[in-house]
Write a structure and sequence with these properties.
CATH architecture: 3-Layer(aba) Sandwich
Order of helices and strands: EHHHHHHEHEEEHEHEHE
CATH class: Alpha Beta
Structural class: alpha/beta
Strand order of the largest sheet: 3-2-1-6-7-8
CATH topology: Rossmann fold
Radius of gyration: 18 Å
CATH superfamily: HAD superfamily/HAD-like
Largest sheet: 6 strands, parallel
Shape: globular
């Protein structure tokens, strides 16, 4: 095998200082003419799932129910507008992680984003940082419309480690010659799959694990300011009302 290196970057909380999924959802709902409290309600439902101990994979699936019936091209357009607004406001991209990514590019390494977020949201991010490819959660889209479901399992946890192995094999290199960057315990499988790992920010437990394994540490960066939201008016185009995702049924024992 060649010694070509690949640098794998988680996005939310690693490359970015906030969760793109929620920053974009807030923008998207406002663009559809929904009052701010609608986003607050949707966000609280998902937070309640997390507080109940629902695995991240299930909360990730519940998130995409917010887009059921949405036109895929319109979601892509709004995602581009959203990220342009983020760049104007500043603060969304972690400068320490971005500097590391640019170092990899200058060294000729391939840069791959690995994220639980989705293509519409990640495409402008990838273009901005100069990523070569993206592995992410794939919402199900039928006839150009989001169904609210997923095309396959979300890109979280073990799926990220699988992405490292598959991408390395596809490019004829070994995971030992790759680096991975993450910020959350759910990134541990990906971090462990690569030859070297870097924790960006992270809680005390994750940073302690990183020290035990001699992984590098990068600092977190302050969260971005609240984003100015678009005014109402898109409902006049006939965009569908979004369903509110419900809480899951309690798991049977």
């Amino acid at each position: 095998m060649s010694r070509t290196r690949i640098a794998f970057f988680d996005v939310d909380g690693t490359l970015t200082t906030a969760t793109t999924l929620f920053r974009f959802l807030r923008y998207y709902l406002a663009a559809q003419g929904h009052a701010p409290h609608v986003y607050d309600q949707r966000r609280q439902r998902l937070k309640a799932m997390t507080d109940m101990g629902v695995p991240r994979e299930r909360t990730n699936r519940a998130y995409f129910d917010n887009f059921r019936g949405a036109d895929a091209s319109e979601v892509e357009r709004l995602a581009r507008e959203w990220f342009a607004s983020e760049l104007r406001a500043g603060g969304l991209v972690n400068p320490y992680a971005l500097a590391a990514l640019r170092d990899h590019r200058e060294n000729g390494d391939r840069v791959v984003l690995v994220s639980g977020s989705f293509p519409a949201c990640l495409a402008p991010v990838a273009a901005h940082v100069g990523a070569d490819e993206t592995w992410c959660t794939e919402p199900e889209i039928v006839d150009g419309v989001y169904t609210g479901g997923l095309a396959r399992a979300p890109m979280i946890g073990r799926a990220k480690a699988d992405a490292v192995l598959l991408a390395a094999a596809a490019h004829g290199t070994s995971p030992e010659h790759c680096a991975a960057y993450g910020d959350h315990a759910s990134d541990l499988p990906m971090l462990g799959a690569a030859g070297s790992a870097v924790v960006v920010g992270g809680d005390g437990d994750l940073r302690a694990r990183a020290r035990l394994r001699s992984w590098r540490l990068l600092p977190a960066a302050p969260p971005p300011p609240d984003l100015p939201l678009p005014g109402p008016g898109l409902l006049e185009r006939g965009l569908p009302e979004l369903p509110g995702p419900g809480l899951p049924e309690p798991a049977s024992s």
